[in-house]
Amino acid sequence: MKVLYIYSGYGGIYSYLEEWIIEAFKEKKFEIITVLSSASVKEVIEISKNHSLSFVFTLMGANINKLLLEFLEKWKVPFFIWLTEDPFYIDKSLRVINDKNVILTIDFGAYEFYNSRGYKNIFYLPLGTNPSVFKKKEPDEYYKSDILILGYPYPSRVNLAKLILENTNYKLTLVGKGWRNQIPKNLQRLKYLCIIDKWVSPLLATSFYNGAKIVINHHRETNFIHNQNSLHIQSKSINNRTFDISSCGAFQLIDYKEDLYNQYEGDEVIHYRTLTECINKINSYINEEDLRKMIANKARLRALSNHTWNLRVDTIMDIIKRYTTL
Predict the structure, then answer these.
(1) Whose CA is closest to 125, among 276, 311, 261?
(2) Section 199-208 average pLDDT
(3) What are the φ and ψ backbone dihedral angles of 308, each rounded to 5 degrees?
(4) Chain segment 182-194, per-residue pLDDT in tens
(5) Span 5-26, pLDDT tens digits
(6) In angstroms, rounded to a whole number, what is the distance separating the alpha carbons of residues 76 and 78?
(7) What does the pLDDT look like over 100-153, one tens digit per residue?
(8) Residue 243, phi then psi, degrees to nearest 5
(9) Distance between CA 237 and CA 256 in Å, rounded?
(10) Above 90 in pLDDT, residue 322?
């Protein structure tokens, strides 16, 4: 079974996501042929002459050159697009959706929206985790913290970080490019604040997750100024960081999403609905090491049994069988 995988054309975390997805396909005995998003129609036709392709697969689809995109939409080979930035970049997603492509979306709110608009061939599928990367380990002292917020400093995350600094004296570590410019100078002088002002690789993220007593997993807001979501579709699903943190066996507090307890049981992940509630739950759990470990271990078992990349590819294969002769 042969798959033409078109790279998304995005950098950063996408280079890792695509590596993991391709690895998972290969473990299922697929032969993967890869091309860049800038590939020409001629290049793809030449590949199809030498290989009997079962389907074409890509993430996002927004960077595929226009002529190739139009060709793939009309081609006899099924074309699968996994929309991995929904609903925050749903304006881009709508440019590649039609009834000829098979669409996977990571967000249930986006899934409901597409269905309400009458689009066909739409499936809801969250991203997964790689347990060979995100795993339990003993971190060096450098990575240890009471509270960790890892990721881009979206305004609501910044507000939460300020609230933690102003109302507690726990060691807070902020990891991600841009944090230093978002925290006021007077708070930056606090001895229990550590700012790692850079994007970190998944391997380093794993060390920070393992080193934290509490990992705060706070989602991007719908109205963030740099989103491309002009229809203001509300996100209803948890991010893939949820699965990564769980796979590490780390304890997390997560802001509530409607789909959270479709992916986890109630005793596996602890949620909050307001920033004040988050502070209260930090205070409740910070000294309860045994309880944190018990909850985190349950979440880890859930991630390993339900939310790995290999399991996501199993689901993709089930969907693919509807459109191919696999």
Answers:
(1) 311
(2) 97
(3) -90, 165
(4) 999 999 999 999 9
(5) 999 999 999 999 999 999 999 9
(6) 6
(7) 899 999 999 999 999 999 999 999 999 999 999 999 999 999 999 999 999 999
(8) -70, -35
(9) 9
(10) no
Q: How far apart are CA 163 and CA 180, in angstroms?
A: 16
Question: How open is the CA angle 119-121-125, to the nearest 5 degrees?
Answer: 110
Q: What is the mean pLDDT of residues 146-171?
A: 97
How confident is the prediction for the chain on average, in pLDDT?
96
Residue 172 and residue 165: Cα distance in Å, rounded?
A: 8
Q: For residue 324, give both structure tokens.
A: 């191919």
Whether pTM > 0.85 for this model: the answer is yes
Is there a contact between 125 and 243 (Cβ–Cβ < 8 Å)?
Answer: no
* Sign of the CA dihedral with 52 first, then 54, 59, and 60 last: positive
- Tokens 């596996």 correspond to what residue? 268
Half-sphere CA count of 75, side-chain side, radius 13 A: 22
In angstroms, rounded to a whole number, what is the distance separating the alpha carbons of residues 89 and 226? 9
Kindly report the backbone phi and psi dihedral angles of residue 103, in degrees, each rounded to the nearest multiple of 5, phi listed first. Answer: -115, 130
CA 48/CA 33 separation, integer angstroms: 10
- Three-state SS for 279? helix
Q: Is the peptide bond before 78 cis (omega within 30 degrees of 0)?
A: no
**Cβ partners under 8 Å of residue 267, min gap 6:** 295, 298
Instruction: Name, in order, each residue with C-beta under 8 angstroms of 290's C-beta and a sequence gap of 6 or more.
Output: none
Token duo for residue 250: 């780390």
Give all domains of the chain, ordered by start, each with its CATH number: 2-128+308-320 (3.40.50.2000), 141-306 (3.40.50.2000)
Tokens coding 86: 């929904």
